[in-house]
Amino acid sequence: MLREEKTSRLLPLKHYHYNEVKRFTNSFACVVGKGGFGTVYKGNLPDGRKVAVKVLKDSKRNGEDFINEVASMSQTSHVNIVSLIGFCYEGSKRMIVYEFLENGSLDQFISTNAASSIAEWRRTLYEILLGVARGLEYLHYGCKTRIVHFDIKPQNVLLDCNLCPKVSDFGLAKLCEKKESIMSLLDTRGTIGYIAPEMISRVYGGVSHKSDVYSYGMLVLEMIGATNKDTVENPTSNTSSIYFPDWIYNDLENEQQSRLYGDDDLTKEEEEITKKMIFVALWCIQSYPSNRPCMKRVVEMMEGSLDALEVPPRPVFQVPITPLQESSTLSRDISVCKALYVENFVICIQKLHA
């Protein structure tokens, strides 16, 4: 009865039987990705369409993550959101069938193009990041019910044959009414390195769609760092002892252009695009949600001129004023989290260019 109530939320999506999925994936022969959620396989539908099939691992949550992801994706229709085709829910088997995207994830794309000239595709990176911003703007404002993703990172941005980005993996997403500015969560969601401070401590403010804004900002900075020659060639020397946004903000203040732009061959326009992306990212990762722009504003900033942007304040992990009995614990939590963010950035850069 419980399963019927849950799956009724997924109608009128195509409900595939397990044997059908097994047939069009050739018995799950072609693996295209793996993660903590499970494994993704490539398949071919009878009508010729290529699809990706995400097979979720067994979960103790009675399929809630699965229902959550499919229900969220079923409400979307946007060029920058991955298209859901159907699902399979039989016994312990839970699978999601969605469009297959030829260029894989953003982190795979960066890794594959690591040896390419940065100047050749810096504009391409900008177009990709602008597309991600538009996708998030749609989730926050374009759906009947607002969808907060809670896990924006390079692995969850897929690229089609034209390098059009599509936000994917809605397993941690939460639906809420647009009039609700603050959301209630029982657990911390997301990936270290992209989680907003308010997800760690409510002292920073309530959890809302602004948490996605923070993750987007960290995504942008990571991509800029991943295409910076100095960072790529010496990932640990530059970031092992400093929070990466501090490092990049210091370069802005000191006008360290070679480290900021990572390539002496960039044109003036490409330098301005890069600086604009940095400014937008730094606004997005302000510690307090109230100081971050909404995704509508982020898109406007990305589409507008550099001259129209104010210089963002330095984003810092700072301990807000709290009662004495809480401050030492919170300070310890923030210090640990900051160290994890630094470690995560170094690991990401090393993985992207391994």
UniProtKB/TrEMBL annotation:
Keyword tags: ATP-binding, Glycoprotein, Kinase, Membrane, Nucleotide-binding, Serine/threonine-protein kinase, Signal, Transferase, Transmembrane, Transmembrane helix
SMART domains referenced in this protein's UniProt entry, alphabetically: S_TKc
Topological category with respect to the lipid bilayer: Single-pass type I membrane protein
GO cellular component: membrane
Localization per Swiss-Prot or TrEMBL: Membrane
GO MF, any single term: ATP binding
A Pfam short name: PK_Tyr_Ser-Thr
Protein kinase domain mapped to chain residues: 26-317
UniProt binding sites for ATP: 54
The keyword Lipid biosynthesis is assigned to this record: no
Protein family per UniProt: Belongs to the protein kinase superfamily.
Protein name: (rape) hypothetical protein
Organism phylogeny: Eukaryota, Viridiplantae, Streptophyta, Embryophyta, Tracheophyta
